[in-house]
Amino acid sequence: MRVLPQTDPAQVLFFSLRVGAWAEDPAALGLLPEQVAELAEFTAAAKDAALAMAQARNAAEAATRSFHIACERMRGLGAPMIATIKARAQFDRSVYSKAMLFPPDAPTRSDKPPAPPRSLRADVRASGEIVLTWRGSGPTGTDHGPGARGGHGVQYAILRKSYAPDGTLLEPYRLIAVTGERRFEDAPLPAGQYAYAIRARRGDAESVTSSAVSVQIGAAEARRTARIAA
């Protein structure tokens, strides 16, 4: 019959339960006191190592959980940011190199340019936000009204320029946002005159720029109005 257990943890428990009794009268067991004292030392070291191993295992499990939680948070924020970068890169492919992303493979066919957005309208809320809406055509030419999504991956580039009160151009058209919907809400702006225009894009094909809409923003607490550019 086997006396000593096979596994390390069981052997540590085996000697821990017996070494104290063996030390009481080693000679009666045919053992030397020095042997029993050394065995007691080795057994204590094994118990300490087992405790350290268990603590390390628990710490590793906790660290693994923390790692996965941190990765989920990183991915939850980073993935939408990549989508935003790729959407902006549809209108400026240099964005790929700036973001250190590989550009998509060139399309195997030339996409037909989408129809230019039309009926662009700007409404200024009492709280100052400028709400843009427009109409566009889907891939089959079917009309889609404000707020609908573009057909077959159509994206819309929102362009804005600004003027001084005397009409002097302060900033030419620049890209401020990219959206897949036929609606965009711009944040409140300082007093002045602004113009918006929209371009549609599908794949590498881009429409001509839409007609502009002009927005006049009054001074603080003053009336804000929006009018369609002539």
Tags for this model:
rod-shaped, 2 domains, disordered C terminus, 230 residues, 10 strands, six-stranded antiparallel β-sheet, four-stranded antiparallel β-sheet, Immunoglobulin-like, alpha+beta
Protein described:
The chain is of the alpha+beta class and 230 residues long. It has two domains: 8-82; 118-227, Immunoglobulins (Immunoglobulin-like, Sandwich), CATH 2.60.40. It is 34% helix and 27% strand. The protein has helices at residues 8-24, 33-89, 94-98; strands at residues 118-124, 130-137, 143-144, 155-163, 169-179, 183-186, 192-202, 205-206, 213-217, 225-227. The strands form two sheets. Strands 4, 5, 7, 8, 9 and 10 form a six-stranded antiparallel sheet that branches. Strands 1, 2, 3 and 6 form a four-stranded antiparallel sheet that branches. The longest helix is centred in the first third of the chain and has 57 residues, at 33-89. The protein starts with 7 loop residues before the first helix and ends with a strand.
Q: How many individual β-strands? A: 10
Question: Would you identify the regions where 5 or more consecutive residues have pLDDT less than 50?
Answer: 139-143, 221-230
What is the CATH topology classification name of the largest domain? Immunoglobulin-like
How big a fraction of the residues is strand?
25-35%
Query: What radius of gyration results from the CA coordinates?
Result: 36 Å
Query: Mean pLDDT, rounded to whole units?
Result: 84
Q: Provide a count of the helices.
A: 3
Quaternary organization: single chain
| SSE string, helices as H and strands as E | HHHEEEEEEEEEE
Q: Quickly give the CATH architecture of the largest domain.
A: Sandwich
Q: Main sheet, how many strands, which sense, barrel? A: 6 strands, antiparallel
Number of domains: 2
Q: Helix fraction?
A: 25-40%
CATH superfamily of the largest domain: Immunoglobulins
